[in-house]
Amino acid sequence: MSDFAQTVKQQADIVKVIEGYIRLRKAGAQNYTGLCPFHKEKSPSFSVHAVRQFYHCFGCQASGDVFSFVGKIENVTFPEAVRIVAQKCGIPLPKREFSSPEQAAEARLRAKLLELHEAATAWFEEQLRGPEGAVAREYLAGRGLTPEGIKTFRIGYAPDSYNALRDRLSGMADNETLRASGLFSSKEQGDGSLGPIYDRFRKRVMFPIANESGRVIAFTARTLETGEKAGAKYINSPETPLYSKSLVLFNLDKARTSIRQHEFALLVEGQMDCISVFLRGIQNVIATSGTAFTEQQVALLRRHTSQIVVNFDPDAAGANAAEKSIALLTEEGFTIKIVTLDGGLDPDRFIRERGAEAYTQALRGARRQSDYLIERARQMFPGASGEQKLKAMNYLLPHIRRMPEMLARDQFARDAAQKLGIDSAVLREELRQAALKRRDRVEARTTALTEVERVLLRALAITHPENEQARRLAAEAIARQPSWFEHLGTFSALQALAGRQAHDPMDVVEDPAQRALLADALLAEIKPPEENEVLSAIQEIQERSIATRQRDLRALIAEAEHRGDFTELALLTQQKLDLDRALRQLHNQKPPER
Ligand SMILES: [Zn+2]
Asked: What is the pTM of this model?
């Protein structure tokens, strides 16, 4: 870790930083808990330690320091996480500070690409206002966009040219960087190398895609061409170091405040729907850009809300995308409602034709997902024949099983049976079973810690002058007689801690299960253990290890007797006597009870 990162880490308060993202509750003298932002949960298994400055989730094993938290939740690299934390804490940034040349190069590239996207956005906006932008302006006006709306979303126009943008940006970056931006295309040459770059977006209306901080990282471009020359109606920027389609939710940067205020997000399919709804005052709206939700997008959204109203296009593709998104969101514990608009209209047309009031009304009438799915099952498998009912039920069962709440599953199953008119006892039983058992998820297993392990872990993990003697005692005991400690569940953590240099305790333990145990011990800690406690812990472990060995010996002795192997028997008996003596000595050494 660089000096700067070290400074930031010392000055940053991990509790404050994490509280900027999720709600934390004080759980002990030095620790806080909350719902983990990295996995779905109903009761908090996410802990933050104020003094040791780490977080740990006992549910998904996410663990680390303030930088790892910010890196994970913001989906940024280490140097960027350092910068973000520094900014949050008001620590002035040095000119450039990276721990490796690769990271520095990567950050430079990303910064450059952001710059190029900003310049391109401004230039597209300018083109839209210029004479060449007339057709585009007409198109946008036809879709109900006002000049203010266009400005809000920074919509622009890419003119019909292969080199206008390239000429504009070529002074800002070298050819390789321009290629990496995704703003340009090139043809493969005969020898396999890439030819000269040219403008990727031509004669298209440009919709910028921003990251959560509102910086443009990509574009969606709609063609204004008709007929054969048109190509795809919409094209998107390719994946670049800045942009990954599955990691972005369109409009989240503008919607997030409103999502928090209203405690739900409105999810629509297309960017045009999203823009149109947003500009008419319903600002908690985001779009997936025509694809089903990805897990990363779910994680992104969960930081703001766990309630969602879905309003996809009523066509078959829309219904399928809605269904896929619903499946994933349900599994991740979201509460979902579904809106179907009258007259088969999409959100954009609906709100333009009938107004924001009517649309808000429609949102209020959103149906529970179970009602929506049952209705869909009835539409897909109409009729009262047993076969159709069976198909409808088979369609619903996986949806039922996905719901995390038993009560919700039960209600869903009852509704389905009733609305589908299922009277067969067998089918009813199947529904009941689906309600009873959720599809199992693998729960992270953590073995409980014994008291002696707690003492040792704490003694080894806490570096403090007053604790030094206790720490040394524990470290030496483990180094001297590792075999005593081998049977402990935390052996590898203890060993790593005993041999550690000046690292953070949570950093030296690599195995996630072991780290969970260490986090557990540290979170429960009030003060470092005293020498006496450490000594008794070591003794107890020694005793236990001797007792185990005695038990093994007794079995071996019995076996040797049985075989009539007297040489072996003599050897084993001697060992047992030695052990008995060692055990007696231990008892005599025991520090007096206080
Ligand atoms: Zn977690």
From this structure: 0.59
